[in-house]
Amino acid sequence: MSMEPRWWHDAVVYQIYPRSFNDSNGDGIGDIPGIIEKLDYIQSLGSNVIWLSPVYQSPMEDNGYDISSYRDIAPEFGTMADMEKLLFEADKRQIKIVMDLVVNHTSDQHPWFQESKSSKDNPKRDWYIWKDPKSDGTPPNNWESFFEPQAWTLDEATGQYYLHLFSHQQPDLNWANPDVRHAVYDMMHFWLKKGLGGFRMDVINMIGKPSDFPDATIFDAGVAGWEHWSNNLLAHQYLREMHDHVLQHYDVLTVGETPFTTTLDGRYYSHPDRNEISMIFQFEHVSIDREEHNAVKKPFDLVQYKEIMSRWQQDLYQKGWNSVYWSNHDQPRAVSRYGSDCPQYRVVSAKMLATTLHCMSGTPYIYQGEELGMTNKHFESIEEFNDLMAKFHYEKMMKKGLSPEEGLAFLNDFSRDHARVPMHWDSSNNAGFTNGQPWLPLNSNYTEINAQQAVDDKTSIYHHYRQLIELRKASPYRDVIVYGRYELIEPEDAHVYAYLRRHEQRALLVISNFTDQLQTRHYSFNIEKMVLNNYSDDELNWTSLKAVTLKPYQSVIIEVAC
Ligand code: GLC
Ligand code: CA
Fold this sequence. Notes:
By secondary structure, the chain is an alpha/beta fold. The chain contains 17 helices and 22 strands. The protein has helices spanning about 30-35, 40-45, 80-90, 110-120, 180-190, 225-230, 235-245, 265-270, 300-315, 335-340, 345-360, 390-400, 405-415, 415-420, 450-455, 460-475, 480-485, and strands at about 15, 50, 55, 70-75, 95-100, 130, 150-155, 160-165, 200, 255, 280, 290, 295, 325, 365, 485-490, 495-505, 505-515, 520, 525-535, 550, 555-560. An eight-stranded parallel sheet has the order 11-10-9-5-2-1-15-14. The structure holds alpha-D-glucopyranose (GLC) and calcium ion. The site of alpha-D-glucopyranose has 9 residues, from loops. This is Alpha-glucosidase. One of its GO terms (biological process) is oligosaccharide catabolic process. Pfam families: Alpha-amylase, SusG_C.
């Protein structure tokens, strides 16, 4: 099989977390008019797709991932007219807008749930998952929630429990009910007809719940119950139905957020002949440095990272499509996590990470501020965190007997709030994010790390991203980057990541030093041309690959003879 070309094969997606992107009216909360003001910035970067985290009406318990009306815009973000203007202005710049589709659950404030909850015989009762207690009054099974100890909450008035894989304010929809599915499909048409470029589908691999609701049996990996509700046949069946009713009628990018997936699952979701979705976000590489159950950070193991990325690159080659990412709104800042955020190496290591990822096959995703090398923020106390998940993890750690210092240290490594700290636009008050009081305090390093500085400085991380995007979209290397075969070189090398991309008569070698030490290596390729080097003053060292010494976090793209 060779892949039928699709417009999103050479797309580069820029993710916006609206709350933290740009505030246009001084209420401290980023908004849609604020995004419109920055479209030129995104266009100059070269990205042609924006994934917008949810902007729908929501009580914001989970910052918009708890939707109370799918056809309305949250007033703090703007109006439907603002949203339509965003689509129009983006289209003028050849940028497509991908919205978040959060349909595993709604907010408990959604009228559907309000009705469902009102009585056992309400017509919408079966739109959510209600079960009788066990005979001793306890929940129907032992499933856990991502944000709470258990996945079931008792509704006193009707005497039944409802299921929520996330918070009790995010009840799970019952996808077994065809009325629910068709309500979702109608809503998707509503948005797609406005000219959307597609959907990012929140935890879409969890929509199929087995009808017998069996107890979880695996307790030492992930949230108890996942073996029953993730990636089952039902999820695939529903997605094929969704494709049939909705997606086949539009030429759109769809990306499923899918924790707990293997490359085989990845093929099931993204193989074009299966008619499900374009691609998925896998979670293996963002799980290697954390041990959730013991709340500890593990050292980043480059050999393991290479094994994971290479397996995905190879297993999906011509059998599906990858998405590749370092960060998003649920992950800490990439440079702090995988590179180095100390002043000496921040810039060069952020560029190294970018090069490593952007030469892989699949669609790259950039999270707002990643292109500036924004870093994690240091939180002084638990009160400074905003995210409900941070609070839950902290309580869990305290119950397990960890000290408050250990709890705080874990959150300083992994809290989702790192990503949600407002974007740094310039060095003025509040980084130019707002004229008011920001909803989440800024990172004080915005005076050095900000978009204005990055745009003005031709050697910045931002310009490095721009070059990488241009290589993928409009250069003689486009086809090898987009469609080439991938080959890992020296899998056991624990310090250097080297891989080859090959397509027709072209081959690119990417070499990245993941350490702050010099590394000397020998490669048996002949250099044709240095394509990109994150040390600009270092070209002369690259005449042969027989013995090369990589500087700290050095990363190069070299065209080599085939
Ligand atoms: C996804 C989102 C996350 C959200 C959760 C519940 O994982 O990325 O931000 O909290 O789903 O919707
Ligand atoms: Ca605002």
